[in-house]
Amino acid sequence: MSKLIKKITAPNGGVFTGDGTNTYLIGHKDITVVDPGPNIASHLDAILKEGDNNIKRIIVTHTHKDHSPGARPLAKLLNVPVMGCYAKFDMSIQDETFKPDTILEDKQLINTSEYTLEVIHTPGHASNHLCFLLQEEECLLTGDHIMNGSTVVIAPPDGSMTEYLDSLKKLENFKIKLLAPGHGDYLDNPKMVIDWIINHRLTREEKVLQSMQKLTETSIEDLLLEVYDDVDPRLHPIALWSLEAHLIRLQERNLVLKKEANWKIND
Prior knowledge:
Strand content: 15-25%
CATH architecture of the largest domain: 4-Layer Sandwich
Radius of gyration: 19 Å
Number of domains: 2
Helix content: 25-40%
Shape: elongated
CATH topology of the largest domain: Metallo-beta-lactamase, Chain A
Number of helices: 6
Order of helices and strands: EEEHEHEEEEEEHEHEHHEE
Number of strands: 14
Low-confidence stretches: none
CATH superfamily of the largest domain: Ribonuclease Z/Hydroxyacylglutathione hydrolase-like
Oligomer: single chain
CATH class of the largest domain: Alpha Beta
Mean pLDDT: 96
């Protein structure tokens, strides 16, 4: 799929991670590692072997525990800098070991003699989420902003449905031919994928609103059974996060409000 990118998938498959977290190595003699993944010795060894002493820096899309814990131990072995951002909110899913040497900012360029990576701030899945556009190949490394095989979990307070939808629309301003997601295979139809995700989220949001209008006032647990009746019940604990994110977005639009432990339609 790419002359400049090599992908290594970490052995951390599961409900949240699919087949595992994808680590990408960009370049040949001036390599950037994107998302070293969990701190698993065999995975870090695979990165070192593929890097062949040419790894110059490590960058992370966000600091969830399946993406960034490998950064610090790998950087220590190689004596290279770690780049990324801190999250706004502390949550159990955050990697507390993450301490970047360089804070990356939106529109920043990482220039090498082989390629240029453009930093695109894409909050939503996480407040500190970044995508990286490999300009030479118009390939977007999406982290968990876009995944192949499942939709993205939005977990408040660090996750925001409003910011997620805005960040998806933001990508329409860039020329992108290929998506390299943090989980799953490459996607070669970026516009179709992005449009589908936006439509899927807005359709789910409309279902939330219709269910709220029918129930008038409800607990989020009861609402979940209405809104996610098409989802495997084993995934409901995960869906609960995204449902809360939808409710917060509707609250921001003054369509619903929270009344103690329940949610209520705003008459």
